[in-house]
C-alpha cells in the first residue's frame, strides 16, 4: 500500500482592519483634540464688579489668537464643596452676571474658555465677598444723595451764570447810553460856542434908544 502524505490545508490569515482602524482614528482624534485643548490659554484679567448682596458681575479677557466660542464659570462658596456651573457657547461676550448669591458670603470663581476643540484650563481663582443688604441700600441712598447734590450744584452754577450774564448786559447798556450822551454833548458844543460869540458881539456895540448909533459931539 502506497504511502500518501497527509494533505495540508492552508488557511489564509484574515486581517480585520475594521476593528483596528476605528481605534486608531479615535486615538488620533483624541490626541488632536487634546493638543488643541492644551494649547488653549485660560482667561486673564478676571475681575469682579458691581458686587451687591445678591448679585455680582464677572469680567475677563481672552488672549489674542485663541478661537474661543464660549465660556464656562465655576462658582463655589468658600469651605463648601457644592459647585455651581455656568456654561454658554456661540457667544463672544466677556462678562457674566452671577445671581442668587447670599449676603455676607465668600465665593470663589473660576473662568474657562471654550473652543471647537475643547475647554481651556481654569483661570486663577477669584475670591470676593458679598456685602449686607443694609450696606447695599445705604450705598444706594448715598449715591442718590450725591446725585441730588450734584444736580443742585449744577442748578446753582446755572443761576450764577445767568446773573453774571444779565449784569454784563446791563453794564453794556449803561456804557452804550453814556457814549451816546457824550456824542450828543460833544456835537452841541460848537453851537453853544457860536451862540456865546454872537451874544458877546452884540454887547460890545451900544445902540441909541432911537435906533441910531451914538455920535460924539465935536
Automatic annotation (TrEMBL):
It comes from Hippocampus comes (Tiger tail seahorse). It is found in: Membrane; Secreted. Residues 122-147, 189-218 are annotated as: Disordered. Residues 126-145, 189-199 have a biased composition (Basic and acidic residues). It is a single-pass membrane protein. This is Fibronectin type III domain containing 5. InterPro entries: FN3_dom, FN3_sf, FNDC5_C, FNDC_type_III_4/5, Ig-like_fold. GO terms for cellular component: extracellular region; plasma membrane. Residues 42-133 form the Fibronectin type-III domain. The chain crosses the membrane at residues 161-179. The keyword Membrane applies. Gene3D superfamilies: Immunoglobulins. Keywords: Glycoprotein, Membrane, Secreted, Transmembrane, Transmembrane helix. The keyword Transmembrane helix applies. PANTHER family: FIBRONECTIN TYPE III DOMAIN-CONTAINING PROTEIN, FIBRONECTIN TYPE III DOMAIN-CONTAINING PROTEIN 5.
